[in-house]
Amino acid sequence: MNETLTLILIISILVVTIVVNLPTMKLFNNANAHFFGLPFLQNKTVGEYKVVFQPFPTVPIPGSNSTMINLSILDKDGQNIVGVFTSLNIKEKDTGEILKNFPYKFHEFSDMTYPFTFPKDGTYVVSLQSKINGDPVYSEKPLIVDFDLPVKSNFSSTTFTEILTYYLTPALAVLAGIAVYLRMKNKI
Fold first, then answer.
1. Which residues contact 186 (CB under 8 A, 6 or more apart)?
2. How many structural domains comprise the chain?
């Protein structure tokens, strides 16, 4: 009976993990470490490139210094690009005032994270400019992509998917590990 319970628990954890991550990943693909972009976020295609925009939290809170603006440029096969120079501008959408200019910087891979503290509620424009080594068009003239980003102080940005991914799945994995350990020690 206990082996059956342990097996059901392990299978349940695997099913939950796959179901939660299915919209944002290709199953059994080569291991890659880049931002996949959730379906409800603004991901844009420019030419042969997909630019993934994944801020954390999804809707930033003004004054919070934990906001990370995550971006990734993927090729037509969904893979990271090697060797890109990128710049990022953040401006208020209504006034056009530039709040922050991250100057061009070389990135070995096309995943980029920029920390930024938004000063107040409102909509901001995050503008990525990238020069891609070896690309006939975008090695000299930058690929430019703009994303609108709402910032709200009274917004709960924790979505159901975030709860499952960041809290429930690891908790279930720990419980499964404890159950297997206790079973091996013949305590259950």
1. none
2. 2
Residue 42 sits at the vertex; the CA angle it makes with 44 and 163, to the nearest 5 degrees, is: 140
Structure tokens of 87?
């710049």
Contacts of 21 (CB under 8 A, 6+ apart): 165
Residue 50 in tokens: 């997909």
Cα–Cα distances in angstroms (integers) from residue 125 to residues 64, 118, 148, in the given order: 18, 12, 5
Triad 73, 76, 79: Cα angle to 5°: 55
Per the confidence metrics, is the pTM higher than 0.90? no
Are 45 and 138 within one domain? Answer: yes
Dihedral of alpha carbons 188, 8, 161, 39, sign: positive
Residue with tokens 């409800």: 40
Nearest to 145 by CA among 61, 81, 86: 86
- CATH assignment of the domain containing 131: 2.60.40.1930
> How does pLDDT run across 138-147, given as a tens digit for each residue?
998 999 999 9
